[in-house]
Amino acid sequence: MSQQLKKKHKLIGTPFLGLWTSTLGLFAGLTTIVLYGVAGAEFKESLGLSGAMLGILLSSPHLSKAILRIPFGAWVDEVGGKKPFLILLGCSILGLTGITTLLYLYYPNEFDSSLFPLLLFFGVLGGAGGATFTVGAPQTSYWFPKNRQGYALGVYAGFGNIGPGVLNYVIPVLIGVIGLAAAYLSWLLFLVFATLIYAYFAMDSYYFQLKKKGETDERAKCIGNDLEQDVFPSGSTRESLKKSASNYRTWILVFLYSISFGGGFTALAAWFPTYWTLFHDMDIVSAGLVAAIFTIYGSVIRVPGGKFTDKYGGEIVAAMSFGIMAIGALVLVMSSAFYSSFIGMLIIGTGMGIANAAVFGLVPKYVPDAVGGASGWIGGVGGAGTLIIIPLLGFFVDTYGQIGYARGFIVFVILSTLCSLISIALRVNNKKLNYQGK
């Protein structure tokens, strides 16, 4: 029946293809959150930066990521995800081109602090790819019914988020083999290639295809329901942002996301290469490998995290995972040895990965009429947490010296505990509302 309906309306694509093209776009775009983190120690030494200034450079890609996630995530509700994806990836290509050009022209002999403003500019431009997260999340949601949202978003975010981890390892290896400038050129070529693949194969869900063919909103939703899709946009960017902003639960999810991913996972993905290099005295390749393990593991674990969310409920899973985060952060605070720090890193990565899946699994449940807008607020405002946390980690280093690399994790102990309590309160409140509704 569904195949006949697709053929009748000349619809193309499948949820599977929609999921994996979104995942590819996220994989490529999200690599830009470690635009400088992959070689943070090298930039710190060459430019003569303090811990706080290094934090600002490392967080520069996160500025555009945070700002652009709001409008671009909501824009999906109006035009679908493909166009926003391509614009963001195009900006990242321009930013990475700028950085690569500066490296070829000035590194190493003339690569000094005078280039810091330009590096910040290209970092901000290149970081636009990080905003693809809130584009791909609603784009993926609109391909799947509500009872498969945890699975779909878990796969999307789980495999898409390993991009920074892969780059955290690959780029340091390439730096050792072909040099810093050539390594960044290789990264640029990969980003261009991935963008071309996405442009060719990606497509928006049936609802958007039907709208482009002239179907009314009501008719497009009706046909979409017949094709087992029951999550639809509110219709316009402004309306989607307005609806989601007026829902207080959106802002609760914003805060939870800012700690689990926006100011948590992405901050540590950029910070860990420097942490392992300068605190544990590891070479850049080994530090990149260990940081990559964190990013890839914390990303892939989102897949079972999504399944847990579907089975047990996002609030319960979130409360438990934030508790795990707090334990991992506490281990990192108290540890200066490699093995105990490594274990702490894996524990906090476990909590962050599962929490990420739980938070976004709650979006269609709490804001079903404006998934795109909610994703924009959550990813944008929540993503701004990185702009605070990375410089804050650098501040601990400036204040306490070498041991500050460990003490800085107290920030995550406090915030993770608070998020766990908020998740429990969400669960209690939701049960109360359901009871009153009955």
UniProtKB/TrEMBL annotation:
Its main location: membrane. One of its GO terms (molecular function) is nitrate transmembrane transporter activity. It is found in: Membrane. SUPFAM superfamilies: MFS general substrate transporter (SSF103473). The chain crosses the membrane at residues 12-35, 85-107, 119-138, 150-171, 177-203, 251-272, 284-304, 316-336, 342-363, 375-397, 409-428. Residues 17-431 form the Major facilitator superfamily (MFS) profile domain. It comes from the Bacteria. Pfam families: MFS_1 (PF07690). PANTHER family: HIGH-AFFINITY NITRATE TRANSPORTER 2.3. This is MFS transporter. It comes from Marivirga salinarum. The lineage of its organism: Bacteria, Pseudomonadati, Bacteroidota, Cytophagia, Cytophagales.
